[in-house]
Amino acid sequence: MYSKNDFGEKFRWGVSLAAYQVEGAYKDDGRGISIWDHFSNRKNRIEDGSNGNVACEFYYRYEQDIALAKSLNLTNFRFSISWTRILPDGTGEVNMLGLDFYNRLIDCCLKYDLEPWVTLYHWDLPQALEKQGGWTSRIVVNAFIKFADVCSKSFGDRVKNWIVMNEPSTFTGLGYLIGYYAPGRFGINNYLPAVHHATLCQAEGARMIRRNLPNATIGTSISCSYVAPSSDNPKQIAAARRVDALLNRLHIEPILGMGYPVKDLPVLEQIEKYFHPYDEELIKFDFDFIGIQNYFSLVAYNNPLIPYLQAFVVPFKKLNRPLTANGWEVHPEGMYRILKQFSAYPIKELIVTENGAAFHDRVEDNCVHDKRRLQYIQSYLGEVLRAKQEGVNIGGYFVWTLMDNFEWRAGFRSRFGIVHTDFVHQTRIIKDSGLWIRDFLK
Ligand code: GAL
Q: Residue 187 Cα, ligand 1 centroid: separation in angstroms?
């Protein structure tokens, strides 16, 4: 078994949270409505019929939760900013009470010696912008630049680390291609412009932060999963390459100046329709780090019936590997493989900004013996170390997540925390996985 020292002194240890999943207080202090408020308050959208209106009440309980993170010996705390607390209509007037909240939150992190890491966009687009087309419309770009400007100017005196976006492939794919996440739109004509505008915002947002804060550490977080072919037949290898292009390469390669992976996914040629002059340049940015968010791996196979992709992934259940409570496969080696894959790009530093697992937890005598989550974290972390020891420049590991929270479409049923949340009484219990982290980081 490894120890904390094996990762080196400079390695950052943290937890990640996202505004909509924890804050609640959805109408308080002038906050505007986001696509997730709108979506989760509609019928039959969230699996357990819940919504994020109250969530973990982090808006009021942040100090207690930050103290909890501190008690686990964590030194970095990642959270996102709710766009509609700052700009209730997405653009226009700034809501001072929203700024006040994040000022208090940041000051509290510093008081507890936790380095704040701010994500600008973790999926909660203002509903007012969605009404004007949301991510499918170019108007989102200027609105996002303004949001980045306000946040970096307001918080940059204390926040050094910035993550422009959280998983563009998830919110564009699930939100605008298959309609499973907010805002629930589908089809290629929604998806492709959403992809392009998200790519643009990633770079433009970063440029605005850099302009206001020349010394900031700026990154963006990409969801990625190692994709293996179902056999070594060339057809299957080509299918895996297409899935890899869609899920892993689409949002990193344009930033690096490589363009969209059109060679492997010809449908992406249609993105050009949404290009304005100079966009090839504007989608590039020299990030200080790229956030890697990995949970599972995939096995892909050729399937001519699937439009555009002509491929699909083998259902996790058929892979004969252990599964998490939400049906994702446990495959620690995939973490190693995806880190190696991304290390081939000219990226300054990789940081694992999310990794974790949902399991069915049981509270017994005020304890949660989440052995499987503990094993999951230990084994994935071991693979992070393996990649690091082979020379991959990995600068940190952030667990998803501090406490059980609103897990998007799955509602409160999927528990990812290293701390248990009782959503009725808003009490917290540190799970065994959290206790292990506390001792490991001592
Ligand atoms: C990520 C997402 C998080 C969290 C996690 C677990 O894709 O960024 O917000 O929900 O997955 O599903």
A: 23
> Could you count the other beta carbons within 10 Å of the beta carbon of residue 104?
12
Mean predicted lDDT score pLDDT of the chain: 98
- Distance, in Å, from the CA atom of 247 to the CA atom of 83, rounded to the nearest integer, reads 26
Instruction: Please state, for a pLDDT cut of 70, what percent of the chain lies above it.
Output: 100
* Arithmetic mean of pLDDT, 284-296: 98
Please tell me the predicted confidence (pLDDT) of residue 228: 98
What's at 243, amino acid-wise? V
Q: Is 247 in the pocket of ligand 1 (CB under 6 A)?
A: no
CATH 3.20.20.80 fits 4-440, yes or no: yes
Put the strands of the sheet holding 311-313 in their side by side order.
227-229, 298-302, 311-313
Rounded to whole angstroms, the Cα distance separating 55 from 132 reads 28
Is residue 3 very low, low, confident or very high in pLDDT (cuts 50, 70, 90)? very high
Question: To test ligand 1's pocket by mutation, which of 123, 354, 402, 405 has the most ligand atoms within 8 angstroms of CB?
Answer: 354
Which 3 state secondary structure label does DSSP give 203? Answer: helix
Catalytic residue among 23, 204, 354, 407: 354
pLDDT tens profile 218-232: 999 999 999 999 999
* Residue among 400, 401, 403, 409 to mutate when testing ligand 1 (max atoms within 8 A of CB): 400
Closest ligand 1 atom to Cα of 408: 10
pLDDT of residue 362: 97
Q: What's the CA gap between 32 and 49, in Å, rounded?
A: 22
Kindly state the helix (H) or strand (E) to which residue 363 belongs, with its residue range: strand 363-364
Q: Give the span between the Cα atoms of 36 and 399, in whole angstroms.
A: 23
CB atoms within 10 A of CB 34: 29
Helices of type H across 245-331: 279-282
Task: Quote the pTM value.
Answer: 0.98
